[in-house]
Amino acid sequence: MSDKDKSSPSKPLRASDVSNWDIETDVAIVGFGGAGACAAIEAADAGASVALFELASASGGSTALSSAEIYMGGNGGTPVQKACGYEDDTDNMLSYLRACFGNQADDAKLKHYCENSIKHYEWLTGMGVPFKMSELKERAIMALTDDCLLFTGNEKAYPFYEQAKPVPRGHNLEVEGDNGGPLLMKILTDAVEQRPAINVHYEARALTLIQSDEGEVVGIVVRINQKEQYVRATKGVILCAGGFCMNEDMLRQYAPQFDCGLTPIGNPGDTGSGIRMGMGAGAAVTNMHECFVSLPYYPPSSLTYGILVNDKGQRFINEDCYHGRVGYNALLQQQNSKRIYLITDVDGYGDYEKMSYLGAQVAGTGESIAELEQELELPEGSLQHSLDTYNQNAERGEDPLFHKSEAWLRPIQAPYVALDCTLGRGPFYPFFTLGGLESLPTGEVLNGDKEVIPGLYAAGRTTAGIPRTAAGYASGMSVGDATFFGRMAGKQAALR
Amino acid sequence: MSDKDKSSPSKPLRASDVSNWDIETDVAIVGFGGAGACAAIEAADAGASVALFELASASGGSTALSSAEIYMGGNGGTPVQKACGYEDDTDNMLSYLRACFGNQADDAKLKHYCENSIKHYEWLTGMGVPFKMSELKERAIMALTDDCLLFTGNEKAYPFYEQAKPVPRGHNLEVEGDNGGPLLMKILTDAVEQRPAINVHYEARALTLIQSDEGEVVGIVVRINQKEQYVRATKGVILCAGGFCMNEDMLRQYAPQFDCGLTPIGNPGDTGSGIRMGMGAGAAVTNMHECFVSLPYYPPSSLTYGILVNDKGQRFINEDCYHGRVGYNALLQQQNSKRIYLITDVDGYGDYEKMSYLGAQVAGTGESIAELEQELELPEGSLQHSLDTYNQNAERGEDPLFHKSEAWLRPIQAPYVALDCTLGRGPFYPFFTLGGLESLPTGEVLNGDKEVIPGLYAAGRTTAGIPRTAAGYASGMSVGDATFFGRMAGKQAALR
Fold first, then answer.
1. Does domain B301-420 have CATH number 3.30.9.10?
2. Do B447 and A284 touch (CB under 8 A)?
3. Which of the two ends of chain B, N or C, has the fewest CB atoms closer than 10 A to its terminal CB?
4. Complex-level ipTM
5. CA–CA separation, A415 and B111 (whole Å)
């Protein structure tokens, strides 16, 4: 067998071709981000020896780059929810998540996640993850204070409030600034290092799985120090190697509608190698076409008083939605619209100049709507109709078209400013992938006939997990999913 | 090994576990629809022996159920295009197909298909497929006359006419009524039967592939007469087993946005078993989330003078598009709109009553737009604005919002009729799947690292082929793709 053959993730090595095992362990884990760390801790705590392989020189993965809000609730409420005066119940949380993802949802995972959400909170705090008993009431993408609880999704927006009682479930770590990710990974890394049963190998690139003649995954080939090491994992391999937003080829193949100039957010190891290793062992993939995408037009929250329109001058979404839902819909619009504008007033624009991640340019200004409409080269009367209608209804606290909530309705006053939110003309459209290996809530990976592949587990963005589309995403769902199902996979493998 | 283990398509059988080969052949083909028939003919004509396995009691597959228009052109034009006064060139055809599918396109397949389209025409006519040197000029979903050439896609609609010169490329067989599919399959079946090198096995269910220790596909297990037969195929296996629109589980897993009450069109064998067999052998899948979907609101073509609106009273597409593009956009709208209406006048409705596949109910009528708007419970002024604007512009032969072509622009006159085009409230929304195995233009199937899986080929809806989304579909693309790439796979396997 040539080196080339060995190095393709899609071609598992046959166990009978391994003459010598360099490393022997109960459980091998690929990736030391949030999912891999939690898997390692749980596997070790269940009595297994663990070899944890990380491509980079340090732990962290994409979790350390994130804000690391964690989406938790149900079961009467987390201690923070209770302290802030919110009641939450499991059915309500489940109803909300079902509304978020509809047919795309993995209902078995949603149920397991909701039913055990408080236990996950307790596990995290048991590890030393700090949450303050306080709420951040602003409309924000992330907490820059050390406050904990915030609405991080579409809970209060139409049509979600019709399907579940709005409750905030984003839990921000008790740390100033956007430092939740680094703090979370520091705590989890300390926990890993304190466990003698876990051996961490940094700068270790996983190459391909090792499979028995019967299809059982029995180990993995890793390259450490320019040398291939054959790792025997008697209880199984857990793939926690992230998604594929950094792999242009995979993106084009699996999520072509997102291969359009968006900005990938993740770590350089998010090349989909874990997904390809799983596929090579016979795993099915799910939801590969979907990505998180965002149009981060708030802060400032005052831009929420504005309206978004397409090149027909039509609104297309209630602007009080979560930025991911808005980004998803703005991207959809651009299938049939060459421009997307955010129309605001002078106050909104003033706030925008002071603080924004958006990067949108001013596309036009006008003392009247007609003037702005002309400057934007919109069809005559189109913006006038949309904005007049919006303003008249906003005056009465109503939005019969898109049901924006009353709190964000106020007439937009002249002079008007239009920000160009068209992809490719300035604004920041970050994205990462939401598709991956098909797996059970236990982390067991499935083939195309939904049969378990013995010895193969996965968690985090290497799998298709809780979040399935940006249209229903909430901050905290991905780190929540990765840490929770990482734990499940670690436990399940250890008990095999 | 238990029977259960053997019977999962996702678990290939190991060649070393086969003690006795019941059938030996050069090439084994699964599925006797358009793709399988063409693959068998080409393989036999290249000197190979062929075993062709069909689940049903007769040939046909989904091709026989279709209208079997075939999308061909380029290269100066097919004889029919030329006879009807159309010039077409390969670059123009390629530009059009690229405009249809954008980032989703498989450019290597598009090129191969366009460059060899006239050769495919010649091959088909050489088999005896009859095309009349005539054109059908109506806006139709299919030809009910024996005329050949018609516009079957979005060629004349915005924005496609900006990106390629509009040329009709749908080739209907010379037969009265909607009988192209049965005739095409009768001709291809005769051609198969005339070739002694091809052995056809009906009522033969393919169970799983047989793979060597090195990953080469060397045969297939089929069940014939309640008994498993082990088929050795020295040159390879070609999977032409259709898509998965009849498999509710796969639909929910891979194309959840289309698992919403649409009507599957295809044959009962479209269960995705070919796709799952390929996956089991390590193949990657592509475009699994996409389906063809249609809102067949013409004939009567006069409904094209109408406008489609959502529950905000907004138009959302140029109504002179192909019915698949309209269906796709109507479905997208329903993510954020509870109703879709087609607004027409009394003449249009009269035609609709006489001839339509649509099945939409009258949702409201009105002597004035305001009256209709109220009856439909649309936001006040919303439909009035859309229809007034449309009518004023139509009067001048313009549609500045959606660029509907002048030929289909005329003011809609009172009294007005609204047809309810909402999914689930009557109208026919047919669909079938457009995702499948990743393959080369040669039919060779690829794994997740784009490496060829030796001995494995596929064609037709078991693969992701030319058509990638209903938004860019044209009638004739799927049968065109299946017959063309079926041929390529048959030739490639035979020459191995």
1. no
2. no
3. N
4. 0.94
5. 52
